[in-house]
Structure formats: C-alpha cells, structure tokens
Write a structure and sequence with these properties.
The protein is 57% helix and 17% strand. A hairpin with a 2-residue loop joins strand 1 and strand 2. Its main location: membrane.
Length: 462
Amino acid sequence: MLNSLSGRFLILTTAFVMLAEVLIFVPSIARFREDYLLARLERAQIASLALLAGDLLSDDLEAELLRNAEVFNVVLRRDDMRQLMLSSPIPAPIVATYDLRDATPWVLIRDAMNRLFTPENQIIRVISRPVRDGGELIEITMETRPMRAAMLDYGLRILILSAVISVITAFLLFLAVRRLLVRPIRRVVRAMQRYAESPEDARLIIQPTSTVTELREAEEALQQMQTELTHALKQRERLAQLGAAVAKVSHDLRNILTSAQLFTDRIEASEDPLVRRLAPKLVNSITRAVSLCESTLAFGRADEPAPTLTLVPLAGLTHDVLEAERFASDGAGRVEFVNAVPADLTVRADPEQLFRVLLNLVRNARQAVEATGKPGSVTVTAREADDNWWIEVIDTGPGLPERAREHLFTAFQGRAAKGGTGLGLAISAELVRGHGGRLELARTGPEGTVFLICLPRGEGML
C-alpha cells in the first residue's frame, strides 16, 4: 500500500499540508498573542474610566477591576500627563517591556515564539495606544502564565484542525490520484501484459483513451511501439516461411542445374566457333548458379558461410560481372558499362561472394539507368589505400527515393525499383560484413548514385 504510487502520494500530501499548516500556525499564534494583549489593554482602559469620572474607588472595587482586566496596574497618559489609574502590588520584578504601537510582523512572531517556549511565569509591561482616542498612551503590567496557557490552547486547536484538514485533503487527493492516474496506469500495464502474451495479435495493441495529456502521450508511444513490433514479428514470420520455400526451390534448382552442367561439358567440345566462344560464359554462369543454390541452402540453415579468402584479380572479376549484365540489358544499347578498375589491382576476398556483391550493385545500377529511358552509364572503379581497398559502383540514374534510403540494407524494405524484393542490397551488405568490410551509400541524387565497398587489407579479418 505505502509502496504504491497512491500510497506515497497520500503520505506526501499529508506531510505537505502539515508543513503548510505550520507555516500558517506561526503567524497565527503571533496574531493571537497580539489580540490577547490588546484585549487586556482595552479592559484596563475601560476599568480606568471610573476614575476619569471623578469617583473614588474602594480598594475592593479597584482590585476587582484589575482582576477582571487580568493586570496589576494601569497607566494612562492624557494631555501630556502620565497618571497611574489603577494599581496593585506586583508579585515580581518586570522582566520585559513590549511596545505594540510600531511592532513589525517579524517582531510579533519572534516575541510570540519566545513566550510559547518560555514556561516560567513572568511579569511584563505592555504599551499601546488607547482605543477610541482615549489618550496618548496606555500601559499595563501583567503576568504571562494566563497568556501562555491561552496561546497553547489556541495552538493545540489549530494543530488538531490542521491534522483533520490534512487527513481529509490527503484522502480526497488519494481517491483522485487513484481514479485519474493509478487506474489509467494499471490499464496500460494490463494492456502491456496482455500484449506480451501474444505480440503477433494486432487486436491486443493498446488504443489510447486517457484524457490526461502525459498518459495519452505514453499510450500513443506504446501503441506505435507495439504496432512496429507486431509488424516486425509478422515480417520475421514471413521471412521464415520464405526462407523455407527458397530452400526447397534452391534444392530442386540445384539438381536441375547440376544436370545442365553436365550438358555444358559436352557443348564445350563443339567445333562451332560461336558455341566455343559462348560456352565458357554459359559454363561459368551455370557454375555460379549452382554455387548460389548451395549458398541459399546454407543461408536457410544459418548465416552466410564464412568467405574463403584468396587473392582475386579485381579487373577480371569486374569484367565478368559487366559482361553478364551487358547480355541481360534491354538490347537498346542505352547503358554503357565501363570497367575502370586498374588491371593490376588484386584484392583479398572470396571470389564468388564478391562476384555476387558486384553483380547485385551493377544490376541495380543498370536497372536504374534503363528506368530513365535515356542513355547512361554504369562504371566500376577501385583504388588501393594503406589499410583498405575501395570499390565504387557509379551510375547516372535518377537517384534513390527517400523511402528506399530509410531502409536501404533491410531485407524486403529497401527496394528502390517497383517489383524488386529488397534482398540484393541486404545480402550484399551481409557478404561485405563477412569480409570485415562495409557497404555504404556514398551519395545519391538526380545526377546519379554511388555505392562504396570497403574491404580491409591484411591477412586476417577485421
């Protein structure tokens, strides 16, 4: 109970209300003391009126007037004359004099606190102005015990009233907090718990209903997070299903391509010059297709296999990639393929995986140029630095749309062309990471797009 939000709020509310009452109590008790003294002064002034009428008072009557006024003597100054109006024996010396004529609030509070915490009975002198223009000054002598007793009684009543007010206020605030804050928070917690049991069920996504601004913002943020998570889980499920389907297709396709590979061995023996020229390209294409099927099957079981690093002549590998895409182009000759890789540049990489990376990038670049319907070019260039090899794939296409740039290397979300799957760049980025390098978008815009491959130099992986 006390560890709950509403319980702690109840404790804090009670404490703060009591603190506020204490701050009210101090000036209140000072005001009470001032009113008490002024009342005694007024009684003393009224008692002295009998003498002003000219009548002589008996000792008994004078003593009774002083007892009723609760003072020992009364001094009145009128017409610049100071006169002892009523008097009686003073039981002890006067220890302090208080002038109420020009007392500031701070002085009144200080004197009240001193009196409240001084239990001894003392004799004090009090000076003030008479009421109703009864003179220039009135002075009385009195004891402090009755005044302190009255102050304690008044203070106790204030404290009891403050305690009752604080408890009632805290209880009402406790109920308000439970209704306005605790219940909505518990509803959000229950919604999170239900959603956690079945995050794939979109019906369990919270619907914001709170009228409190902060809670509604929290509900809206939770709704967005749950929506994105549900979408991601469904996407993962679809990917798992797709992976199983691709693995099955790749298994059968590998068998078919293996048979085709046997036929190409016989085609290589043909005497036809055209066949002899094209047969090696066909053999290489089928070999790479078989290798891709093997990699797809491995990918269905786990991640991409670790690359087998060898020294690869990059210009020759790039030539094979560009030739493959030249045959796959629309035949209109609008796309120019440029191999700007230095002929003597050799990189340390897995040739099959690097071929797949370059093929994906060049194919995307060729399709981007063809989509414009205008002549353009796809250029592959490379350079060698102290620690890395840098390979650039440059096209003169229209650039990537903003939607594609947001999830560029995320499977099924980074597709730039209509009808694409968004797998090419995701697979390429993973293959490059397997080499210890990185694939990044260097720039894109109306003038074209540049992808940059960074491969680390050295004998091992970074």
